[in-house]
Amino acid sequence: MENWVSVFSTTEEFVAERIKEVLTDSGIPAVVLNQRDSSYKTFGDINVMVNKEDREKAEQVIKAYNDRK
């Protein structure tokens, strides 16, 4: 995962999955990295990760998606 960077962070798993889907539909491979504590759901984040070279494009896609809402 050393070539992957976080482009989106949330505490809601369904939001992370939706952002991953938006990125994937735009041709950007993405994964969800859940770092939430399994016992205490209030600790930790869920990150959407992309390859370093896709970071700028991913950020543009996420911004355009959020602007549509």
UniProtKB/TrEMBL annotation:
What region holds the DUF2007 domain? 4-64
- Give the top-rank taxon of the lineage listed in the UniProt record for this protein: Bacteria
Record-linked InterPro entries: DUF2007, N-reg_PII-like_a/b
Please report the name of this protein according to its UniProt entry. DUF2007 domain-containing protein
Source organism of this protein record: Butyricimonas hominis
Lineage runs: Bacteria, Pseudomonadati, Bacteroidota, Bacteroidia, Bacteroidales
